[in-house]
Amino acid sequence: HCRRIASGLAEWLRANGADVRERARVERVDCASGEVVLADGERLSADRVVVAAGAWVKKLVPDLAAGLAAWRNAVVYLDPPADLREAWDAAPVILDVGGRTDGYIIPRSGDGGLKFGAGLHRRPCDDPDADRLPRPGEGEAIRDLFSPPIARTDDYAVREVVTCVYAFTPDERFFAAANGRCIMVSACSGHGYKFGAAVGLRVAEAVETGDVAALARWLRADVA
Question: How large is the average pLDDT for residues 48-52?
Answer without folding.
Answer: 95
